[in-house]
């Protein structure tokens, strides 16, 4: 039996494939490389020392998705494939709704057809909306502020409805906080196209001399140093969480949400300091206006994941920043 990993060439998917292979699982990847490169697959295989079965296919291609299930014995699916750029989702919402919603519906229909009803889903802390009632628990009211976030909310609803209609289904809805870091090998990491939107890749590129300075979005929040606070977690811890969630969907039925975060918040300036420690380079920054749609503070209550999944993040902020820095250094030719 194999595990189908959609979006397995991407940032979180590639790290998860390595952990699955290391745990002795058979892995089938479906990815259209719209936000990743085929080389990621070779790197996964190099790091893990084992092969994956690759389908270079689009989730929107029903025939291709059906072939994956016809040609392999798929025990469960870990579903990462989706578009994730918040700003772009505001500019071209229909692309996001079509890719993320239609793609997932095609996947669920194929799964139902082949009687494979176990799925681990990449949701996001973005489903907690603009609230700053931290720490966020899974029972917190849900809302979204942009089309990307709405696709996550809607997909959670679609999965809950699917379970209600057929109690054979099992869904783990994993609400990720802020994954950062990279694989220790320096081979796998986050490679955003163009100028990064997210803090970590941006700061690392400033440290590498690729960008002149960091704009800190807001210095007057009611936080320890006035800058925004987030729950950063190491991508390898997050990847390992998927193995726990895989075991959970094998043994349980339902549609359960789990926060995957550390439960600790760090400010933008604390991240700058951690990258400076990791790189030995001073990171120039300027405090600028707040970014529209940002909340001051966001961190998880990860107690449910610990209790039910037996998962807990173990890597600290210095390890996250050292690994991010190693990846940036090795991949930016400095
Ligand atoms: P990523 O863009 O690196 O990986 C997504 C992968 O899916 C890419 O390899 C892309 O080529 C593929 N893909 C997209 N649409 C596809 C389609 N129609 N058919 C086939 N393949 C397709 O993103 P990531 O950071 O690894 O995120 C993985 C998932 O986790 C996404 O669903 C994302 O929304 C979610 N998530 C990410 C974060 C984060 O901070 N990175 C936070 C919360 C949730
Ligand atoms: C963003 C997305 C969120 C998505 C998450 C992970 C928005 C509004 N939210 O969240 O939907 O799930 O990424 O992909 O885009 N910061 C700076 N300067 C920068 C970049 C960021 O000061 O150049 C600050 C931000 O204001 C924030 C923190 O750094 O306080 C983290 O930002 P980011 O990495 O973009 O993550 P989120 O804001 O949590």
Describe what you observe in this structure:
By secondary structure, this protein is of the alpha/beta class. The chain contains 11 helices and 14 strands. The strands form 4 sheets. The protein has a 7-stranded parallel sheet, sandwiched between helices. α1 (11-22) runs parallel beside α2 (39-48), α5 packs parallel to α6 and α9 crosses α11 (317-331). It is globular, with a radius of gyration of 19 Å.
Which SSEs are present, and which pair or pack?
Blueprint: E1 2-6, H1 11-22, E2 26-31, H2 39-48, E3 53-56, H3 62-71, E4 74-79, H4 86-91, H5 93-113, E5 118-124, H6 147-165, E6 170-176, E7 178-180, H7 199-207, E8 214-217, E9 229-230, E10 232-234, H8 235-251, E11 254-260, E12 266-267, H9 268-279, E13 285-288, E14 297-298, H10 303-309, H11 317-331
Parallel strand pairs: 1-2, 1-4, 2-3, 4-5, 5-6, 6-11, 7-10, 8-13, 9-14
Antiparallel strand pairs: 9-12
Number of strands: 14
Task: Indicate the structural class.
Answer: alpha/beta
How do the SSEs run, as a string of H and E? EHEHEHEHHEHEEHEEEHEEHEEHH
The major beta sheet can be summarized as: 7 strands, parallel
Low-confidence stretches: none
| Rg of Cα set | 19 Å
Helix content: 40-55%
How much of the sequence lies in strands comes to: 15-25%
Contiguous helical run count: 11
- Coarse shape: globular
């Amino acid at each position: 039996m194999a595990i189908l990993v959609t979006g397995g060439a991407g940032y979180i998917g590639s790290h998860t494939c390595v952990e699955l292979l290391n745990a002795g699982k058979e892995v089938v990847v479906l990815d259209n490389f719209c936000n990743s490169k085929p080389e990621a697959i070779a790197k996964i295989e190099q790091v893990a020392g084992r092969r994956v079965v690759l389908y270079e296919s689009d989730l929107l291609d029903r025939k291709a998705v059906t072939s994956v299930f016809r040609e392999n014995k798929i025990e469960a699916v870990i579903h990462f494939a989706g578009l994730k750029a918040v700003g772009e989702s505001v500019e071209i919402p229909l692309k996001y709704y079509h890719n993320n919603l239609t793609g997932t519906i095609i996947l669920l229909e194929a799964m139902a057809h082949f009687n494979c009803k176990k799925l681990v889903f990449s949701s996001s802390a973005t489903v907690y909306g603009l609230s700053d009632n931290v720490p966020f628990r899974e029972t917190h009211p849900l809302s979204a502020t942009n089309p990307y976030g709405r696709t996550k909310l809607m997909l959670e609803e679609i999965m809950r409805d699917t379970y209600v209609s057929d109690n054979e289904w099992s869904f783990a809805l994993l609400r990720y906080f802020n994954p950062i870091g990279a694989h220790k090998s320096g081979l796998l990491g986050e490679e955003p196209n163009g100028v990064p939107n997210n803090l970590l890749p941006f700061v690392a590129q400033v440290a590498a001399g690729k960008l002149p300075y960091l704009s800190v979005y807001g210095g007057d929040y009611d936080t320890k140093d006035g800058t925004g606070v987030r729950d950063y977690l190491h991508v390898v811890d997050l990847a390992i969480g998927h193995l726990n969630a895989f075991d959970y969907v094998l043994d349980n039925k339902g549609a359960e949400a789990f926060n995957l975060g550390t439960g600790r918040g760090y400010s933008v300036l604390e991240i700058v300091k951690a990258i400076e420690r990791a790189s030995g380079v001073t990171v120039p920054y300027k405090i600028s206006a707040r970014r529209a749609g940002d909340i001051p503070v966001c961190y998880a209550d990860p107690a449910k994941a610990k209790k039910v999944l037996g998962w807990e993040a173990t890597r600290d902020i210095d390890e996250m920043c050292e690994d991010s820095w190693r990846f940036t250094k090795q991949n930016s030719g400095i």
